[in-house]
Amino acid sequence: MTQQFQLGAIGQIARSVRDVQESSDWYGRVLGLPHLYTFGNLAFFDCGGTRLMLNAMHGVKADESILYLRVPDIQLAYRELAERGVVFEAAPHRIHQHADGTEEWMAFFKDPEGRLLAIMAQTRK
Fold first, then answer.
1. How open is the CA angle 79-81-113, to the nearest 5 degrees?
2. Is-contact 121 105, C-beta < 8 A?
3. What percent of the chain has pLDDT over 90?
4. Is residue 110 within 8 Å of residue 17, measured between CB atoms?
């Protein structure tokens, strides 16, 4: 029997930044992501098992995708990040309710370059 090819989990996400030191401080201190290492214009963080690479080599790309960060308690994460200076577009709100009652909640905010990120959580009622 032949082994079938299958992709694994996402190993790394790259995000362009204008200033790697400023962004490293924000992603590390404000968001609390563990810093892995920095070399040259690249900084790497652990984002729940996926490596986040900040890259100052190619300039900021305004149309990059949104980073959605899972949190176990969205209200607690919202309060903590707001205390650290994160400005949210709105308070956490329900995006969707599944047939089994599970709710999807999100709250959006921007990084130093003005691109969207979000915290997200699932709750069961």
1. 145
2. yes
3. 77
4. no
